[in-house]
Structures are given as C-alpha cells and as structure tokens.
Amino acid sequence: MSYLVLARKSRPQTFAEVVGQKPVVRTLQNALTQNRVAHALIFSGVRGTGKTTLARIMAKALNCEQGPAAEPCNVCRSCRDIAEGASIDLQEVDGASNRGIQEIRELKEKIRFMPTSSRYKIIIIDEVHMLTTEAFNALLKTLEEPPDHVYFMFATTELHKVPVTILSRCQRYELKRLGHRELADHFVRLAALDGVQMEPAAVEMIVREAGGSVRDGLSLLDQIFSYCGQEVRAVDVVEILGLVSHQLVAQLAAAVLNGDLATVYALLDQMYLHGADVKRFSNDLLSWFRALVVCKVSPNPGQHLERTEDELAVLQQTAAAHSLETLSALFNLLLEGLEKASFSQQPRFALELAFIRAVQFRDVAPVSELIARFDQLLAGTPIDALPVTPTNNPQPCRLETAPQPVVQQTPPNPTPQPQPATPVTAQAITQAPQPDPPKPAPSPQQPEPNPDEQPTATSAPEAERPIAPAAPAEPPQAPHPANLPANAAPPSPQTEPTATPLPPAPAPPENKKRIRQHWDGFLKYVRERQPWVAAALQMAASVERKGDELIIHFDDSADCTLLKQRNNVTALTEFILDFFQENLSIQFAVPGSNACAVDPANGLAPQHERRALGNDPLVLTALDVFTGQVGDIRIGPRYRTTSKPATSATDDAPPLAEE
Questions:
Q1: CATH homologous superfamily, domain 6-175
Q2: Burial class of 30 by CB neighbour count within 10 A (0 to 12, 13 to 18, 19+)
Q3: What percent of the chain has pLDDT over 90?
C-alpha cells in the first residue's frame, strides 16, 4: 500500500479523538444518547476543522450494531465498512462536481429504497454550497419530509451561499478554528508517535502557519518530517517554509519605533537575501505591531496573544517604552503601506516607502500640542515663552498671530517725525497737552509729553471711541514702518464716524439674470428643491416682468391652483429671490379669469427677510472692514441655521452674504 499522509492516517475515528470542537461533539453525543438526532445536519467552518470527519463518525454511530450509541465501536461490520469507505448504505457526494439537478434526481430515486445492510441510509454532501439553484429547489421537499430510514449530512466552508430555505430545514453546527495550544499539543503528540523530536520554537511556527486548521498543519508537518528527519529545528522550519525569523521581525519593528532608517534598510536586505515572501513578511510585521498594541492596552496580554514566553517578554518591554498613540499610528500607517506593497509591481520599493513614512511619523507634532499652543497665544502669551515639546523635528511648527495690543510709552527725547491725521481715542486726548489746565509733573510711568509730537494711544481700562480729527491741508502720508514702535499697530487710514446710517437696501449685483433667458436654469434650481413646484411651473405658457412683479401666465387655472396657496407662494418667492437676487413679487395670470390671483401680502415676508439680512450690522461691518459689497443673499430653508428642517440637503449651503 502507498504511503498514507498524516492528514489521512491521523483522521479521528471516534468523538473522543476529535481535536477541539467540544461544544459540537457534546451536542451530537447527547442527541445520540437521547434519540434526538435531526434528519438533516449541516456542518460549517473553515477548511480542515473536521466537518466531513464529524459527519462520518456520526454515520458510524447511527449504524453501529451496538447503538445508536454515543461512541461507535469501530469493531462491527458497519463501522469497519464506513471506515474503509466500502459501505453501500453510506453515499458521499461531492457537491462541486455533482451540482446539477440531474444528480439530485438520481439521489432522490436511490433513497426511496430501504438500506441494504445497515440501519439507515446516510447521504453526505460535501461542499454543498456549490449546488445550483435548481438542485437546491429539487432537494427542498425531500429535505423537509425525508423517509424515516434516511439522514442527510452536509458540509460547507461558505455557509452564506446556502439558501435560507435549505438552512431552515437543517440543524446547523458551526466549527471554530482550533486554538493555538490545542494544535501545538496535537502536533507534538503525533510527532512523538512517529519518533520525531521537535523544538518548541519550531512547533510554534508550524501552529502559526496552520492558522487554526488541523489539515493545513498536518500537511506542513508531513513536509517538515520529510526534510528534517528525526529532529526538527526552528532554523529548518524557517528555511523550508520560507518564513521570516521572528527575531528579524522584532528587530525591524524596534528600528521603526526608534526611527533608525539605516537599520531598517539593512534588515530588509537581509530578508530579501533569505528569499522571504513579501506578503508573508507583511503579515508577520503587522501581527507584531498588533501584539504591541494589545500589550499596551491589556493588563494580561497572554490571554489574547498566541506567543511564546520569550516573545511575550520582548513585546511587553517594547510596548512599555512607547505611547499608545505612537503604536496605533504606526500600526495604521504600516497597514495601509504594506497592503499596497502586496499588490504593487515593485513590492520592495513600496515596502521601503512605507517604512520611510513610518519613520517620518516621529517628526509630526501632535494636534493636541498645536491646539494647546494656539490657545496660549490667544490668551496673550508671547510665542517665545511657550513651552516646546522636544521632538526630532529640526524645524518645529510655529503659529503666526496678529500683534497683540500692548502699552507703548513715548521715549524721552524722540526725533520729531511728520505724522498723518489718524483717529485718536478719547483717552489719548485726556493725556495730550491742554491749553487751560497746567501740565502735570512727569513721572517714571508716563514721561512729559512733547508738544511737537502727535498723541499716542495707550492701553486704558476705559472703552476707546474714535474721534474724527480736523481735515489736514494736504493728503496724509502713511508713516514708514521703520518709524513705528516695535509692538504698535499701524495707524488706520479710515476717519469715518462710529455711527453709520443703515442703507435702505443692499446694492443689487451688477450682472443681473434676465427672466426669460434664465428661466430654464430657474426651473432646474427649483426642481432640486421641490420637484412638484418645478413640474407645475413647466405648465406655464410664458413669463414676463413688469416693474418689480414677475407675472407667470397659465392657459388653464387648474395648473396654478396649488401654486397660489400662501405657503407655496412664500416658498416660490424665496426661490425667485435666491436665484435672480432681486426683490420680485409673484403674480399668476390666466386669460379671462382671476382664479389664480395672488394676495400681494403673501410674498412680503421673504422680501422683508432678505432686506433685513442685507442691512444686518454684522454684514455691514464686514463690508466696511473688507471694503466689499454684497453679492448674493439667500433665504431659502436650506440656507438657514435654525432648527427648522430643510426641504433638501443635496447641496452644500453657501453663506448668507458673499463678498
């Protein structure tokens, strides 16, 4: 007989030999003992977790001559025939190759007959999710009410592809990935049965590569036994499987955390010399950084990480030396960069670029630090007095702010300079030389004023009110910046009085929109906000403008019945004001009828609101400061900031006034 691989030679023959899956095994054994076995079972889970194995053990337990029992005897003829694959009453169907409706019809014909030598007929369909929709539909009725002598058992790795109508007729058992320790103990036991000695580090590598699958791990173990013989070392496992040594991964992660790019390049060269797979290396490195984050946030990381004691000690030591923000940010950067490297045409270049970005991350100042410094600047703290967190950035970020108002004292004997006529404050005038009262004695805090100089503004506790000085004979000239004090703000050339009368209405924009020329654009504008209003306006025969009235002509009064209502007139007026940017009122006209006449008061509210927005003191102040003019004033519901719900939220709301 040819050689039998470990995956077949070590296949469990009883429930007691099944590795892991204790909840599923216990449920099946109790169902056998209590005679509560469902007529259709479906086993799901990742590859190599024991789905087909459990179905075969269940078939042996049902047909055992000593049972049905919680454990098959493996001695009777039925158990031996099933173990050897020679049982007539056990039919295994490959769902991937027998997936059509014709195969299901033949199967239904066979199950009509009673079993030949066993108690029940057992139908096992592997990879049942591969069946066609017609095959599933043909199986529905039989699966819902099968004969008493038939049991169905399905196995699938993709349960979501099985129709719900099939799942509702089956009893589902989900098989989990095996734990790290269970797989390690199982592999060590099998190696001992074959007389092979394995290093603990080698076992850990094989278990990690198995990924919770017993069959995958046994295939790797069979390959390693052929290469190593009677002694398996970690170095041999790294060489035969093309793995990256975890010492190399730990060293590279430490170099990235320390910002040592030269070491990172040296370790990458070493990795490529060993011929390691880029994708496998990326997964190992990301797993290492994830372990660092777990060690940082968890008081007992050993419960969440499947690592050896030496690796766990290195991880805890590295995580203690860095903050959680640094570890999580690097984890995120490497996750994005290494994922791109897996699909890049030049994976090594993409990998190096990802590490360069990860190393440069140390030069980025935290946002919290910048916000704190900005708050201190707003509080009046000089920028040179702010504490700077030491980083590796040779050019730290600086925040530029406007000069703060400070008290400026006049020097004792300044050189007279020609000063322009600038607004002075009431507080400054009280300190300027007056003709009637005597001059106060000079003090160290306030020197005696020079009559040849212009009065300067000082920081007084009273509110400063600008006063318009006398008009000069010649146009004022702005002083040179070199003649100004170090911390003094440049004088403002404006001499307007404080109280400015409000204009009656905002100035209309120069580029007005014509009613007839832009009517299609207006309909599109309304359609985005209220489609039914745009549809009603499309029924209009024509539009015209007479003064401040927009007259919309309809041939039939039924077309404007809804539009003439007060709420609709108000909304339509808002649309017209927002689009054409003119104070227009609406009228509907129907030949020979006044049925669609509009009350003029219905459209006054949007006009008053638009006029109030244009005359708002804040808007006027902004126009005065920036020497601008009002462009558009929008009053529609989507442009309001109150709690009133907007009719549409498809577009971004522009500001109330554009300069």
A1: P-loop containing nucleotide triphosphate hydrolases (3.40.50.300)
A2: exposed
A3: 18
